[in-house]
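Bumping my old thread because nobody answered last time. Still need a sequence for this structure:
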């Protein structure tokens, strides 16, 4: 199961907080200081759901969570 985090900083245009798959070594993952750990999940949909308990606007990273990327 992959390990996920969500960026504490919103994206400048969309204002989404992006979920990243840390197990995939995403080159666009936020700096550790800006990561909120989501833990281990079977897929990005589960990680996005958990991130939505903290942030309203959440999206999957285009590069490491493409199946959950919507904007």
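Sorry it took so long. Here it is:
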């Amino acid at each position: 199961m992959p390990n996920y985090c969500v960026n504490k900083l919103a994206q400048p245009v969309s204002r989404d907080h992006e979920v990243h798959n840390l197990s995939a070594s995403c080159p666009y993952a936020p700096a550790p200081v800006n990561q909120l750990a989501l833990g281990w999940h079977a897929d990005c949909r589960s990680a996005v759901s958990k991130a939505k308990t903290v942030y309203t606007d959440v999206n999957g990273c285009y590069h490491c969570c493409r199946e959950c990327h919507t904007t």
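The mean pLDDT is 95. Let me know if any region looks off to you.
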